[in-house]
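Per reviewer request, we include the raw input and output of the structure prediction for the construct analysed in the revised manuscript.
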Amino acid sequence: MNNELGNQFKNLELQKKRLKLNDKTKQKENLQYSSDDLETNQKLCHEIYSLITTAEIAKATWGYRLTAILSVNNDYIGGYEIEIVDKNNNSVKYDIDFLNVPILKELIKLYACKNACLDDYNNIKLKDDLEYKDRKSEEIRYYEYYNSNEKCVKISENFFKELNSNNWEGPLPQPLIKHNNEIVTSMKAMFSECNRINAIDLSNFDTTNVTHMSWMFFRCNALTELNVSNFNTSNVTSMDWMFCDCRALTTLDLSNFNTSNVTNMGSMFFRCKALTELNVSNFNTSNVTDMKYMFSKCSTLTTLDVSNFNTSNVTNMGSMFYKCSALTTLDVSNFNTSNVMNMSHMFCNCSALTTLDVSNFNTSNVMKRRYMFRGCSSLTEPEALILAT
């Protein structure tokens, strides 16, 4: 059985006969690939995938493990080196080199990897601390990595021009999890001012280690589609201005967002004026201190459920619902406002609101409340706006 399987692997001729060594090196230990080589390899991934998941492999108790992370130009993750092992976990030498990220994910779903799995966000989770092996190609650089009290990543200047011209198709490459041995923790302003792009595929992104997403999609005002359902936000502390001025977005699914560590949500959805609905009912806001302008100028929102918000640590609610002029109801009766100091313009120009219960508001620390209810012209019980002290 093993000989038969071995012949099948060998017949694929994945490396020696179908991939060419880069002219700059002939030494196997320093193997480098051109962009054409990488493309060829990715096509061959389908053949490997079909072969390795066959029943014969399972019967032979063979398996596979990942041995290294393959980075390209020290810029993005191109794939993972793979090794076939027997039932005793000994290497079985065949000419399989690496699998790209999408194919590897599909493989892991159907045939368990010995040292990796997929998490709830469809990201590859490693059980071993794998080394990075960098390969060179003639591609443009997609990302820039820099230090600003932490390791940050943003779109490179050259790729920004291509991306913002809507000339890019398909998923963006996965940014490095580590750059020069430092974990990348910030995506602050990563796509800021990409004001012409209509859609962006971030399905390859692994945000497990990211702590800052402030300004991430700031002024992406032509963006009509944005899928962030695969984002792991369990370590994120700042989401202020994250979707600010995404004026063309009509839907935004945040149902998978874990906001338990977020402290700043100020201006998070400021001027998302095409959103007619926004489900934030699952948000854990127990650590949030700043909600100023959070939903300000979301002028077409007709429903907004914030009834489960824990606001016990919030100090700033200024202009939180300013010009949410399509909202007819808003339940803030459970808001704990004991630490709030700023409520100015909080409900200003919520002109369609017919009822608003703020009878439980504790305003003992409020120093700013100017124009708090100005322009709430449809309220039928204005006497309910008398605030408790």
